[in-house]
TrEMBL record:
Record-given protein name: TLDc domain-containing protein
Lineage: Eukaryota, Fungi, Fungi incertae sedis, Mucoromycota, Glomeromycotina
Species name: Diversispora epigaea
Residue ranges occupied by any TLDc domain in the UniProt entry: 19-201
Pfam families: TLD
InterPro entries listed in its UniProt record: TLDc_dom
Amino acid sequence: MSLKLLPPRTNEPKESFSTIISEEHAAEISSWIDRRTITYSTTNVPYKFELILRGTKDGFAPQTFWNICHDHKGTVVIIKIKGTDEIIGGYNPVAWNNTYIGGKYEKAIDGFIFSLKNGNIQNSILSRVKDSMGSICNVYKGGQNEYGPHFCDFYLHSKNSDFVSDNINYCANDGYCYEKVIRTSSSNFFSIVNYEVFKVIRKS
């Protein structure tokens, strides 16, 4: 009687939670949420980043953002800009809402926007709310086929209902709602490669 030898057991590589940011980036963002001066270590992050939307999976139509992210609060939007090493984003502590006929600016005192250290980008930039009354915009229903996540000083925008095909996504170079400028480009407009939205959930 011969014994059948089984192949050695291999450990499957762990799938990354994001195709844009690293565990270190998530730790840095978590520290900003908690207003810590010292960044969490990757093993000590008190939050789980739960993927809600990924452009390459769910599509880049603006309406898709409003359909999927409606009623989610405590979310982080991550955007990879085309042709550079730039990763920018924003944290929205209040809920995205797709029901407003006339649109509404939300008060989001604890919100912020940011750019992350990556490749040739040597330092991350955190930009906290300066004008909390207008820092988040829940876009009016008629505009949701053009505008995606809207952080006042920057937002995703497309006339073609496709964020990656347009070059009119916007980031201001003169901070109005937030303390600091997060891009150094001479142009306010950019194209994207991908974007992700995460719900930030405190671990039990």
